[in-house]
Amino acid sequence: MQINLIAVGTRMPAWVSDGYHEYARRLPRECTLVLTEIALGRRSKAQPVARAVEEEGQRMLAVLRARQQVIALDVEGRGWSTPQLGEQMRDWLREGDDVSLLVGGPDGLAADCLQRAAQRWSLSPLTLPHPLVRVLLAEQLYRAWSLINGHPYHRCG
């Protein structure tokens, strides 16, 4: 199984790339994490933000394959605890299909992306900077893998 992190934004600070890659490399081959960066839509006085978000959404949908579960990261989605994320990951591994996690840019995800998603996942009721979400997701996916495999990285309590 492959987890695809499809995220808007291409020029991330070094700390974002370093943090993401640190946790992504820790995941085993049967649960690889692959980042696909999507260019920001053009924003200007002549180009409304909604059009830019729509462009980003079209680019995101274009990289999806038919047989994969799509999960939109959305502040209005359902929050998962670490054990719940572990159960989600266990289900993903059992089903064997690839999973794609969609992370929008500074103005969120396009409506088409939200409609394509089988689930909406909220990392927090707080608004998080979209570059930080990459690092947080990679770490939490590694933590969930650690939990379901009895690895000492995840310690409860």
Give your account of this protein's structure.
The chain has 157 residues and is of the alpha/beta class. The chain has one domain: 3-Layer(aba) Sandwich (Alpha/beta knot). The chain has 5 helices and 5 strands; from the N terminus they run βαβαβαβαβα. The chain has helices spanning 14-26, 49-63, 82-95, 111-116, 130-148; strands at residues 2-8, 32-38, 68-79, 98-103, 119-122.
Mean pLDDT: 93
The largest sheet is: 5 strands, parallel
What overall form do the CA principal axes indicate?
globular
Low-confidence stretches: none
Structural class: alpha/beta
Radius of gyration: 15 Å
Q: How many extended strands? A: 5
Number of discrete domains = 1
The number of helices is 5
Give the spatial strand order of the biggest sheet: 2-1-4-3-5
Any key phrases for this structure?
alpha/beta; 157 residues; globular; Alpha/beta knot; five-stranded parallel beta sheet; single chain; 5 helices; 23% strand
Condensed summary:
The protein has 157 residues and is an alpha/beta fold. The chain has five helices and five strands; from the N terminus they run E-H-E-H-E-H-E-H-E-H. It has a five-stranded parallel β-sheet.
Q: Secondary-structure map with pairings?
A:
Blueprint: E1 2-8, H1 14-26, E2 32-38, H2 49-63, E3 68-79, H3 82-95, E4 98-103, H4 111-116, E5 119-122, H5 130-148
Parallel strand pairs: 1-2, 1-4, 3-4, 3-5
